[in-house]
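re the bet — no i am not wrong, look at it urself. input seq straight from the record:
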Amino acid sequence: MKEHKAGFVNIIGNPNVGKSTLMNAFVGERLSIITSKAQTTRHRILGIVNGDDFQVVLSDTPGIIKPAYDLQSSMMDFVKSAFEDADVLLYMVEIGEKALKDEKFFEKVKNSKIPVLLLLNKIDGASQELLEEQVQYWQAQLPMVEIHPISALQNFNVKEVFERILELLPVAPPYYPKDQLTDKPERFFVNEIIREKILLYYKKEIPYSVEVETEEFIEDDKIIRIRSVIMVERDSQKGIIIGHKGAALKKVGVEARKDLEKFFDKQVHIELYVKVNKNWRNDSRQLKRFGYNK
């Protein structure tokens, strides 16, 4: 009988590098929201992959930035914690990147005592010459790490990276029940799916000023009834979210419901409201309420 392996595999990188796409490819479920906009992931989200003789606890963290307000500082705290408990670190870059946006984090990668796999993502759009040049660059920058060219979106080399992760994991019992997919509650994914639609459908500062809170989640045999509040920082933002005669808010609700029905595999009824919650991104009490400050 094979020994059981288990461990924490944490994914770090700059914004928009494809961490959420990779996480979802590994887990086989849509746990992390994916858009082309920066700072899509705000929390540290765990995705759990189980086999007969292994458990991989994957962690998708916010993209590394230099914080401009308290919310972003809390987001970077999630990244710091990812360095502390990792058994394997996945440092994700894309073609043309030179380093992490925070030098302290880059130094932590350089001096890491645990195995680091550098995943060179989005290679499907690169020439062979450019790819070889990028591999040489990163070998010079981080001679101790393993480099794996991948395309998370096209699922290229993802299986091979996962098999390498399994080889590197320590022998250990599972950390979570074998039927568990993530550490987050159902309401968290409701909030994230609604927030994803806002990221997709609104421009400029609006998506970054928004937080979503699900106040009601009632499930019976045939339907889930959800009531969620979209919080913004200013009255003018409230008007933009709602739109002319409520059309914009209705679109968010319709598209979110479609994804929620796929996610929960059940009929969903959703009600959305918009409230002004001034300066919540710099309010430590509010940030704690939304799960950012511990």
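see?? The radius of gyration is 20 Å. told u. also The mean pLDDT is 81. so pay up
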